[in-house]
Design goal:
- This protein is of the alpha/beta class and about 475 residues long.
- The chain has four domains: about 100 residues, Rossmann fold (3-Layer(aba) Sandwich); about 60 residues, no CATH class; about 110 residues, Tetrapyrrole methylase, N-terminal domain (Cobalt-precorrin-4 Transmethylase, domain 1); about 120 residues, 2-Layer Sandwich (Methyltransferase, Cobalt-precorrin-4 Transmethylase, Domain 2), CATH 3.30.950.
- The chain is about 35% helix and about 20% strand.
- It has 18 helices and 17 strands.
- The strands form four sheets. Strands 3-2-1-4-5 form a five-stranded parallel β-sheet, with helices on both faces. A five-stranded parallel β-sheet has the order 10-9-11-8-12, with helices on both faces.
- Helix 3 links the parallel strand 4 and strand 5.
- The radius of gyration is 30 Å and the shape is globular.
- About 35% of the residues are buried.
- Bound molecules: S-adenosylmethionine (SAM).
- The site of S-adenosylmethionine (SAM) has 23 residues, from helix 13 and strand 17.
Length: about 475
């Protein structure tokens, strides 16, 4: 992040705006909305600032900027139409340790003024770090339409009862309580404009709270998808935002981890192939222990938790101890890699079935039903098959598959680093030998691989995609 986002209390402090035009008027207006006292320095004022000065909303000093104007100010905004004057103002403000913003020249000042969505007490500030104010405004417009204005009323209601809830409930129970309020009927009543009923319902909820403080937590077994954070489900995102602790795997991307609620504990329990960092039994008992402590535990796994993910084992212990849990499916690597490499897993003409297998090598061999894998008109997707690729190809040929059967190997599918290698059962191992391929990789075997020539879309320049 180039800038530190903070919300500054300027209530009843003296802030200086230099400039008389419309940009200066917008900045002055924002300061007034934050209850600052605003002085405007400019030889002449445009229509908006003239009106504000006439209404005594701002004090007007009719002059060119001079250093004494900075005396006793909380912050300064330089908004003249002369870049050199703005730079000079910034220098003088800095010499006095006054935070200064230079309108339309973010680099010349110390802070930038974000686009604001005001649902006071809830305020959302959007910034592009000065890179594109237009983009920030566009995002603001989107958020404006997504966030009902009643969120302001909801914020006020919570503010009113916050201390009472704090006195009544310990931290973890408190967070759960507010989650329920914000996602339950109290919020719905506020959104429907029924504030009095919402307040009564909240009072009742506070009176009833605390009766079940000793209850165990719950576990969410969540699929994080194959890598691209956009492939996360809405439910996964919501649960990431409300978990107390997140246990995550090696395959979960940093962008997805960044969506975990700030303040939640993140515990890495990833397993390397050769080095079982945290044994499965230990993960199972950690999940149970945390849930018994009353926490909301989110177990985040790459892809889908029930596909080569040992997700079933992880919830068996929870079942046995009566812990509440839910399973949130994720996009499995096969679906993600196939889509992002332009290889449909089934096709009316080439493949009427699709088999998912693990290509994990055990003592140099792979234990699979080869006869079944070599049937015609089907697609075979191999997870964890990179080390065993040569064995996989030779065994399939030995069991009757054509040497020319197309094969694709997708490395880090759906991410910005995705690479796709294609070949046949007889030549793919050799083709990738010097490519420094690293896990995770997925192998797709079948005639459908040929379709990639026409359907490959990911990371293709737009022009080329439009005029193939
Ligand atoms: C332990 S399995 C977990 C599979 C996961 N539960 C799923 O549904 O995708 C790990 C294997 O999934 C495959 N995999 C996961 N993410 C991948 C990705 N982004 N690109 C290619 N393969 C991936 C690789 O074969 C990797 O070795």
């Amino acid at each position: 992040m180039r800038y530190l986002p903070i919300f500054l209390d300027v209530r009843d402090t003296s802030c200086l705006v230099i400039g008389g035009g419309e940009v200066a008027a917008r900045k002055a207006n924002l300061l007034l909305e934050s209850d600052a006292r605003v002085t405007v320095v400019a030889p002449e004022l445009g229509p908006t600032l003239t009106r504000m000065a006439t209404n005594n909303q701002v004090e007007h000093i009719s002059a060119h900027f001079a250093i004494p104007h900075l005396d006793g100010r909380r912050l300064v905004i330089a908004a003249t139409d002369d870049a050199a004057v703005n730079a000079l103002i910034a220098d003088h403000a800095r010499a006095l340790n006054l935070p200064v913003n230079v309108a339309d020249q973010p680099a010349a000042g110390d802070f930038i003024v974000p686009s604001v969505i005001d649902r006071s007490p809830v305020v959302i500030a959007v910034s592009s770090s000065g890179a594109s104010p237009v983009l920030a405004r566009l995002l603001r417009a989107r958020l404006e339409s997504l966030i009902p204005s009643a969120y302001g009323n909801l914020g006020q209601l919570i503010e009113k009862f916050r201390e009472r809830v704090k006195m009544r409930l310990p931290t973890a129970a408190r967070r759960r309580f507010w989650d329920q309020v914000l996602q339950g009927n109290v919020a719905e009543m506020v959104f429907a404009g029924n504030n009095a009923a919402a307040e009564r319902s909240l009072e009742q909820a506070i009176n009833d709270a605390g009766d079940d403080d000793t209850r165990a937590g719950e576990v969410y077994l969540v699929g994080a998808g194959p890598g691209d954070p956009d492939l996360l489900t809405f439910r996964a995102l919501r649960l990431l935002q409300q978990a107390d602790v997140v246990l995550y795997d090696r395959l979960v991307s940093p962008q997805i981890l960044a969506m975990v609620r700030k303040g939640a504990d993140k515990i890495y329990v990833g397993k390397q192939k050769a080095d079982h960092a945290v044994p499965q039994e230990q993960i199972n008992s950690l999940l149970l222990k945390l849930a018994l402590e009353g926490k909301r535990v989110l177990r985040l796994k790459g892809g889908d938790p029930f596909i080569f993910g040992r997700g079933g084992e992880e919830i068996e212990d929870l079942m046995a101890h009566g812990i509440d849990f839910q399973v949130v499916p994720g996009i499995t690597a096969a679906a993600g890699c196939a889509a992002y490499s332009g290889i449909p897993l089934t096709h009316r003409d080439y493949s009427q079935a699709c088999i998912f297998v693990t290509g994990h090598l055990k003592s140099g061999s792979i234990d699979l039903n080869w006869a079944q894998l070599c049937q015609p008109n089907q697609t075979v997707v191999v997870y964890m098959g990179l080390t065993g690729l040569a064995t996989l190809c030779s065994e399939m040929i030995r069991h009757g598959a054509s040497e020319d059967m197309p094969v694709a190997l997708i490395e880090k599918g759906t991410t910005a680093e995705q690479r796709v290698f294609t070949g046949t059962l007889s030549n793919l191992p050799e083709r990738i030998a010097n490519e420094d391929v690293s896990a995770p990789t997925l192998i797709i075997v079948g005639e459908v691989v040929r379709l990639r020539d026409g359907l490959n879309w990911y990371k293709r320049p737009l022009k080329e995609a439009n005029n193939p």
